[in-house]
Amino acid sequence: MGSRMTWRQIRRSEQFRGRWVALNNCRYDASTNAPIEGELVDADEDLAALCERMRRAKRARCSIVFCD
Fold it and tell me: How much is the pTM?
């Protein structure tokens, strides 16, 4: 993964719908605190599995959000 994407692009992608998405260097909307864009690190349907991979990769600063 590792590509920079907008949250809108991520939400429109069938690949990420219904999955938890880990973003690095995330930029947020100042008024809503919703993500605007970020570097896509990883995604998984299982939040615990995603968090475990992030922990093993020492990626403690990623934002993890659900893509509905």
Answer: 0.88
For 8, how many CA atoms within 13 A lie in the half-sphere containing its CB? 2
pLDDT in tens, the chain (68 residues): 668 999 999 999 999 999 999 999 999 999 999 899 999 999 999 999 999 999 999 988 899 999 98
Strand 63-67 with 19-28, pairing: antiparallel
Q: Which residues contact 8 (CB under 8 A, 6 or more apart)?
A: none
Domain boundaries of the chain, sorted by first residue: 4-67
Q: Kindly report the number of other CB atoms within 10 A of residue 30's CB atom.
A: 7
Contact criterion met (CB below 8 Å) for 2 and 43: no
Report CA dihedral (30, 33, 38, 44) to the nearest 10 degrees: -170
